[in-house]
Specification:
Shape: globular
CATH superfamily: Fe-S cluster assembly (FSCA)
CATH class: Alpha Beta
Number of helices: 2
Strand content: 25-35%
Number of strands: 3
Helix content: 40-55%
Number of domains: 1
CATH topology: GMP Synthetase, Chain A, domain 3
Largest sheet: 3 strands, mixed
CATH architecture: 2-Layer Sandwich
């Protein structure tokens, strides 16, 4: 399961890098994926769009049981 999640993150990462941002996988627990946004993504007004309409939709196609994605601010 985690490997599939990491592969999806690797697919979206280059697009985030082009804008000066990045994303890190933290964990998968109770049907939720926890990630940490980095770089310009931390301050971006579109971070919710990136996570919910970008990465979450991609993840749900691969792993339908995923219920959500949570940005962890460590």
């Amino acid at each position: 399961m985690e490997e599939k999640i990491k592969n999806c993150i690797e697919e979206i990462r280059p697009y985030m890098n082009m804008e000066g941002g990045d994303i890190e996988f933290i964990k998968y627990e109770d049907f939720y994926v926890y990630v940490k946004l980095k770089g310009h993504c931390v301050e971006c007004n579109y971070q919710d769009v990136t996570l919910k309409e970008g990465l979450l939709e991609m993840l749900k196609k691969e792993i339908p049981e995923i219920e959500g994605i949570i940005n962890v601010e460590l």
